[in-house]
Amino acid sequence: MMIKGKIPLYIQTKEYIVGLIERGEYKPGSQLPTEKDLMEKLKVGRATVRAALSELEREGTVIKKHGSGTFVAVPHKTYSFEPLISLSFSLKKMGIELKNKTLLTEKTVAQGELLSGWQHGTELGHIKRVRTSGGIPIAIEDSFYTPDLFEIVSKASPTESVAHVILEGSAENVGRVLMEVIIRQPTDEERYIVEIDSDERVANMKRWIYAEDKKKPVNYVSVVVPLKFLK
Amino acid sequence: MMIKGKIPLYIQTKEYIVGLIERGEYKPGSQLPTEKDLMEKLKVGRATVRAALSELEREGTVIKKHGSGTFVAVPHKTYSFEPLISLSFSLKKMGIELKNKTLLTEKTVAQGELLSGWQHGTELGHIKRVRTSGGIPIAIEDSFYTPDLFEIVSKASPTESVAHVILEGSAENVGRVLMEVIIRQPTDEERYIVEIDSDERVANMKRWIYAEDKKKPVNYVSVVVPLKFLK
DNA sequence: AAGTGGTCTAGACCACAAC
DNA sequence: TTGTGGTCTAGACCACTTT
Fold first, then answer.
1. How many domains does chain A have?
2. How far is the C-alpha of B227 from the C-alpha of B203, rounded, in Å?
3. From the candidates B74, B82, B84, which should be mutated to test the interface with A, based on the most A CB atoms within 10 A?
4. Which of A24, A47, A179, B225 is the most exposed place for a label (fewest CB within 10 A)?
5. Residues of A at the B interface (Cβ-Cβ below 8 Å)?
6. A118-176 pLDDT, tens per residue?
7. A100 and A62 in one domain?
């Protein structure tokens, strides 16, 4: 090791491991050298190796399994669309964990503005949640699903990304995703839930996911976040 | 410390620090006890304290500042609008390395259905780029801007995210963002540029950014990526 | 100069998985 | 039982910020 003078050893260790993977010496799913191997090979302490591997795990490059070893992460196809359409995915990548609190779970029918491409009277599942971080309400989320999807989503972990469930759950193949973000004044209900003044503005993200036939959405989500949390 | 037998010390340390914050003993923005203080107070090693603080920083609860101290995070300003609407941000998260090759920079006028939202004949700046990874063309990007924005974008680094420039550059306040992702067959030109067969499908991501008046877009971008690169 | 977090080592013991 | 990663300590020196 120790080639470069200024760069921290654990960064150099990271680069060494990434190099092994990029050169194809260790394929996705295969086991990487053990921490002990890396210590001896690179002549560094174990904390240094672990710091490198920890960052790589956080970045999704490797997966550590207690008792068995460290493995090259297998990129999964369905993850590909996720960052584009998932709010929680993007925030998580930035290191921000949101906690969900479910306010309401019900069966309803499409009506009013919420038609969103659905026929009037279409049966839908509806979940209303508040997302918090450190106990502070950050976002209000209203999500609507076709009955089939509602079954699947209801059984999934409430902290799991809906986009992830849809993409991964094989219920439907995604054919089209539409997303809209607008800046507007909050409603009274929104002001109450996220505790803001009436002169503060909110970002309202709406997302429609269509199945492969592209006719009607299988999922519609509206997320409201005060602008002060976004700038 | 050492109250609970099975739970790791660094987790207990985390809980202790979170408790300090939740009980209001340390308000957002204020400086937390130093690592040394925590070591002595809790009778644990420094690595344990640092493990706790590292997780708390990753979760967005605290902020460490080299040379000055560790502070309770201020929930404001922590979140960014960018991941929601930036294509390059998302692509980067997919592991797609961003090297841009500009094929075309021109002034043009709005025409055809692709430029929906603009009046026929509106003056626009147009940039056509190919994104490559390891010399292989991965994505085709066509972006259109109002003349004012075109000036700013042209001067910005070509690798910089357009969404970033628009959000940070204060050229306009963003009032509305519309994004669409569809899966379709490639055009002949697309097949030529990214070197794919006609039976392979592509993901076409389109994004419109509207200024505060929400009438006409200030930016329209279309990115085409072969599905096989999204695995 | 003093204090803070950042990096690093050497060594120990524990918890889990596989043989 | 063996080997892996998980946790933890004690101590050292470095880099940055503030006084």
1. 2
2. 6
3. B84
4. A24
5. 47, 58, 75, 77, 79-81, 83-85, 87, 89-91, 93-97, 133-136, 138, 174-183, 203, 205, 214, 225, 228-231
6. 777 778 888 888 877 766 787 888 888 888 778 777 776 665 666 655 555 443 455 66
7. no
Examine residue A185 and state whether it is found in any structural domain, yes or no.
yes
Range of the domain at A50: 9-72
Q: Nearest chain B residue to A97 by CA: give it.
A: B59
A5 touches strand D (CB under 7 A): no
Give residue-wise pLDDT tens across range A186-211.
777 888 887 777 667 777 777 788 77
- Answer yes or no: pTM beyond 0.90: no
